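Appendix B. Extra example for self-study. Work through it before the problem class; the solution is given directly after the inputs so you can check yourself.
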Amino acid sequence: MSESHEALPEQRAWMTLLQKAGAPVVSVLIAIGIGSLIMWISGYDAGAAFAALFKGSLGSPKAFGDTLLRATPLMFTGLAVAYGFRAGLFNIGAEGQLFMGGLAAAYLGVRLGGLSPAVALPAVLVAAMAAGAAWAFVPALLKARIGAHEVITTMMFTYIGKYIVSWLVVGPLKAPGQIPQTEMIGASAQLPRIQSLFSDAALQSLPILKLGRGHMGIFVALLFAVVVWLILKYTTLGYENRAVGFNPWAAENAGISVPSTIVKSLCISGALAGLAGAVEVMGVHHRIFDQFSPGFGFTGIAVALVAKNHPLGVIPAALLFGAMSAGSGTMQLEADVPQKIVLIIQALVIFLIAAESVVQWFIQKRQKEALARAR
Amino acid sequence: MPVLELRGITKIFPGVVANDDVSLSLEPGEIVALLGENGAGKTTLMNVVYGLLAADRGEVLVDGKPARIKSPRDAIDHGIGMVHQHFMLVEPLTVTENIVLGREPGRFGVIDFAVARERVRALSEQYGLKVDPDARIQDLSVGMQQRVEILKALYQGARVLILDEPTAVLTPQEVHELFSVVRSLVDEGLSVVFITHKLEEVMAVADRIVVMRDGRVVGETRPSETDMVGLARMMVGRDVVLRIEKGPSRCGEPVLEVEGLRVLDDRRLEAVRGVSFSVCGGEVVAIAGVDGNGQRELVEALVGLRRPLAGTIRLKGRDVTHAGAREAIEAGISHIPEDRHRRGLVLDFSIAENMVLGDHRVEPYAKRGVMRPARIAQMARERIEAYDVRTPSERVHASALSGGNQQKVVVAREIGRGPELLVAAQPTRGLDVGAIEFVHRQIIAQRDAGKAVLLVSFELEEVMALADRILVIYEGQIAREFAAGEADDETLGYYMTGGGGSKLDGPPSAEVAAGGER
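Solution. Structure tokens for the complete assembly:
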């Protein structure tokens, strides 16, 4: 047989990276372009708006700290959704698992607050993971056993989770006082701000370390991004997860239990989402209340999409969404452009990435023309 | 004047030149066979003609006039019809409804079913394509569905009919019927392009044979001027052994023993109804039968994908009746699935990742849940070498390989594992002669190494070439057993289609020695 070899695309590391990163980067640029156009049509000064957006997200150490603050939970929910996607599961209910993780952290944080941080921090994080996993377990079981679609069930469980928290913060777990919220967690269960690690003298001489509200949760998030990446790439657990995601029939043929992989995958996804709730409680609010998440679980879907479900891609994707959210306030204040324009840009990013096949089509057409000319 | 003419058609896909300056002409009343291996560009060429793909260069002429065909609609308007390998029928609708779909007779959006029925009936009479106009597609056999596709093309006014691998899904009897249909079509003045990679079909039906290789036309001949060996050489570009040599089998200890096996299908009907047989080390036992007679369920039960209802399966004396797929692999059962894209490969995985599928938990490829990519890559490279997988590296995605090379990956994995029993279901489906030869050699090598092989195939040619013993399966039961060389394909076909309902009845023509136990 005479087959041409050079035609086969090889899976080289740099090539796949370029391929995977290319489309999201282009999509973000196009989205910013369209966003500018919308602002221009609406009579706003797009230049000033983006300047303010930049200033509010990256313009100062404090602004960057805000970006980190917003990016931290998004990294976890992004990882959660991405991990599920790699098994072909759409965990649309990360928000509910986040609430459960946050609840576990708030509850245990109060009770373990007296212990040493070396015990309290890991214990609270693990409890939040367990809570998130538990919240994903029932939908996972329903999917594995009777094929109930996880999009419906995890979504329904989100409502249940949120309302359980709503009830607890006005009822059994309500702290004394007027406000419906839980008691503050103990100091040793709190994730300290990054700048609190440094002495005043160090902050004086190196003002770049003054990261404001940015807290240690970001390092936990980065650690987990790497861990999830290692799991997917180098463990049988991750291999089976991907095999089921790509082709459950071939996986089954190879002796991989599809139902048990589904349960494992959705529970790991839930555990990651639970951590998102935990870092919000431990690093930002130090307690839980009704509206403590502005939909980090849902934005996580967008983060995973931009990251192309790659755990390491989740890092820049979460930072991007974190920066947009952090800068939008400054944008409204200084450039008088409504915060909502950021949501429009985010929506455009999602839309363009979802429509990637169109972009791919353009790229392929160009390649083909080049090839035709070369012959 | 040719009814259809292609001039210098060039079609480029990213990284691949599928058609390179291809020219072809078709005279009225002629059957041209377009012969070539998978990936030679036959289907691409015809998709260009049918308006499904746009050529990068070249032109299509109909009746000597340049035709701009940009969609199947245009093709139909020019009198070109195409029957695809995978039928495009609406299953819950009737034959008539499917045929008139898109060109329904009637007025103001109301379909005149009486007229439609009458037209369909007239067409089917004219061309000798017997089919019940009121039957629902889902109730028809594959061969009948194909007739509906042909009738549909005729209804739309086709004068040129393109048949893409039309025999791939048919039984031997249906193939004969198709050939006579094709001949009656050309008698009525139609022209037919017959796409195939099967040599015997080409010899049987074609007036003229155009051979394609690597996107180019490499030769043109007539059945009277060549033979199968010559055609194979032209098609593959080298000499090919169509039927491999094998020595007598040396039957050792029984490896697989199946007793009274009963298995349900997905509709919970009994598909395997009390099957007993054994396969010993060093022999190839073939299950011959028409698709849908319980072969799939039998195989799935053996390899642990389907739970048997009753009976026992023993491997080297060990009871594996209720083993799952994982236990089956661990017990030493390898499985070449009938559908490599569905069961055999994870197309989005690299070759290396596919090679380790099923062994991905065990040493040396993994230890305590951590995979060892270097070991896996090394194993993959060794197997790529040993099984002649044409790829630049083990990092290439399985989806980028040709069908033959994909199957080699599956074969390499399943045989490379070193199984006691190899269950090979349709191991050469959709492969071209070169790859078939390779897979057949591997199966015989496995046998000669003293392993047991159970072959399930709808291709009698393959069954006769490989098997030491042949079990004919019909409606979930073993209808008859033959030793190698005991039965010809007429006889096998007779039992495959339910002839000799009783095991005592004789075959139609050829005399047959008693199958019996050995």
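Self-check: The interface with chain B takes residues 1-12, 234-237, 239-240, 242-243, 246-247, 249-257, 364, 367-368, 371-372, 375 of chain A (CB under 8 Å). If your reasoning did not lead you there, revisit section 3.
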